Amino acid sequence: MSERRVAVVTGGARRLGRHLCLTLSARGYDIVCLYRASELDARTLEQEIAAAGGRARCLRTDVSRRTEVAAAFENIRAQEGRVDLLVHNVGNYNPQDVTRLDPTVWDDTIGANLSGGYYCCYHALGLMPDGGQIISIGMAGLEGIRANRRGADYYVSKTGLLVLTRALAAGYADRKIRVNMISPGQLDNSVDLPGPDEIGLEVPLARPGTLDDIAQALVYLLEAGYVTGVNLDVAGGYRL
Ligand SMILES: NC(=O)c1ccc[n+]([C@@H]2O[C@H](COP(=O)([O-])OP(=O)(O)OC[C@H]3O[C@@H](n4cnc5c(N)ncnc54)[C@H](OP(=O)(O)O)[C@@H]3O)[C@@H](O)[C@H]2O)c1
Fold it and tell me: What separation in Å is there between the alpha carbon of 125 and the centre of ligand 1?
């Protein structure tokens, strides 16, 4: 069995997930990235990490499908033999008004964001040594959430993940496994980003978040040995 630390990142081939893979690789983790469709991005991620002297492999896995997740972690058991860190980054956002919310969109969102997160946690915990970690990516403002007509499925999935985060943190504390959530607000690649003159109306720090802002929080949690069950808003005060 390898003694190198292994991080599994869901939705890791592109955008935020890719940045977190690169951050973790630079800190010495071997990366296993689960992706759904972004084949080319997955291959370039493997190449980029290898060129920098790290190790990464990408497995095509639809995390909303239980059997695919089980097969991916069986593959990880055979190859890496362990999972020290799981980052559940998949978070599909397809906002529709709640009066027109299509049930297939509901199923897809809950399946990938919430159930997929649980499937990955379940299998990762089976390969995780004591002292391992799980970090889910949430959405800022979950603690004070009110009715949200647009994207109800998304907010239900993220709130559910927060409840799961706290339950797992309590349940696995005896193994010193820490389980936390990082919640971005509006990142500079957001599909909903307000214009530069308007961002200050929603975000007191008056700028969108960057991928580095989120990576900083990840790096903090890696070393924060007394922090578990928390949701860390990294959002410039969004939805205070
Ligand atoms: N961007 C923001 O402003 C913002 C704000 C708040 C919170 N967040 C959260 O931050 C996280 C990352 O955001 P993002 O904007 O980078 O996300 P994104 O562009 O939606 O990308 C997420 C990745 O998830 C993968 N994915 C989707 N469904 C999947 C499935 N069923 N199985 C496996 N992989 C799947 C996609 O892979 P393929 O391309 O291979 O399909 C994609 O690369 C999400 O949890 C999101 O909710 C983002």
Answer: 22
